[in-house]
Design brief:
38% of the residues lie in helices and 14% in strands. The protein is α/β, with parallel strands linked by helices. Helix 2 packs across helix 3, helix 5 runs antiparallel to helix 6 and helix 7 packs across helix 9.
Length: 351
């Protein structure tokens, strides 16, 4: 350990390190451990949608974060805890709002919505104070108290965006669990998890929504407007969820979206014959072109979901064959990687 530390702190960039990502054939069965569902095992890799997305972003980072769990253990008051808190508040808000006021926030019921949101926020604050340490959002300094107060104002202001989003739809499923009794089969994987929100309209169309509170620049269907051939998007979670909703609930999915309620920004994938830019907070034409179907030979949303599943299946085959080489989709992926020494990691400051 002493020798390793000396190497690590004396110009490790110039040190020749062994190649990362090599898994001995005898250990490949340990890459993905089997999970028991009520005492029953199912054929396939037991992964979650977020784990699949993590592997697609960088196999080596997936190994470090998801399999070896090389992460800090300290409780924080950062983006992760904040995001969990916001998810919980928004879920509780809509459950209460639909019971007391209406199915959907509109311009006409905004004052009532703000009142309900304030109640949900206060209840979640008290709930988090009573929770065990982990991903709770509990301020311990005056500065953190101010951040919490600011967050309350931001959430109240975000209801104007909520009123404008998908005006002909309403939230029908909030924090919807799937794969509880029997895992959902996707791309050779057994999935179980929770979907933030599923909105539906009177015609049986559905839009899957995943809340995000950060920058959504990497969340579009296409990496750029001049992309010439279809490839898996950088972020795959909502498209995986869309397939779950389509095959489990039998709904006609027309959108798989990431939504930042604070910024009023939507990215992801949508069928432009069912949803227009005004349904999605007035997307600019250049932005809509990177998020809408038809695109690059894919005409229907069902075809998009099926194509993505087929491409993901090939990557899962590579995972099970022991492919965990460092292959980040972008420098931004490396910025969130716990592996400090990696041949593909960009130099400090390049991201």
């Amino acid at each position: 350990l002493e020798n390793a530390s000396s190497i690590a702190f004396s110009g490790w960039k110039s040190t020749e390190w062994p190649a990362a990502g090599r898994i001995d054939e005898s250990a490949r069965d340990l890459l993905v451990l089997p999970r028991s569902y009520h005492g029953e095992l199912f054929p396939g890799a037991d992964l979650s949608a977020s784990q699949i997305e993590s592997y697609l972003e960088c196999p080596y980072q997936w190994l470090a974060k998801r399999r070896l769990r090389v992460e800090a253990l300290e409780e924080g008051f950062g983006a992760m805890e904040r995001g969990t808190f916001v998810h919980n508040v928004l879920c509780a808000f809509y459950q209460d709002f639909q019971e007391k006021v209406a199915l959907k926030v509109t311009a006409g019921n905004l004052p009532q919505a703000i009142e309900v949101l304030d109640e949900s926020f206060a209840q979640q604050v008290e709930h988090d104070r009573e929770r065990e340490p982990g991903r709770r959002y509990v301020p311990v300094t005056p500065w953190e108290e101010q951040l919490l107060a600011d967050l309350r104002q931001q959430l109240s202001a975000s209801l104007e965006n909520e009123a404008a989003l998908l005006p002909h739809f309403h939230p029908a499923h909030l924090e919807w669990d799937y794969g509880v009794e029997r895992p959902f089969s996707y791309a050779g994987c057994n999935l179980t998890g929770t979907i933030d929100r599923i909105d539906v309209d009177d015609a049986g169309n559905a839009v899957v929504i995943d809340y995000k509170t950060g920058n959504l620049s990497d969340y579009s269907l296409l990496a750029s407007a001049d992309q010439e051939a279809f490839a898996l998007p950088h972020k795959m979670q909502t498209l995986i969820y869309a397939q779950v909703v389509r095959k489990t609930l039998g709904l006609n999915v027309v959108g798989a979206l990431y939504y930042n309620p604070f910024a009023g920004v939507v990215r992801g994938a949508f069928d432009h014959r069912a949803l227009g830019p005004l349904d999605l907070l007035d997307l600019r034409p250049s932005v809509a072109a990177c998020n809408q179907i038809p695109v690059l030979g894919i005409d229907r949303f069902e075809a998009l979901m099926d194509t993505c599943e087929q491409l993901v299946a090939k990557r899962i085959e590579a995972l099970l064959a022991g492919d965990v080489d460092p292959a980040p989709l972008s420098d931004k992926v490396c910025a969130y990687c716990p592996v400090g020494i990696c041949e593909k990691r960009p130099t400090e400051g390049s991201w």
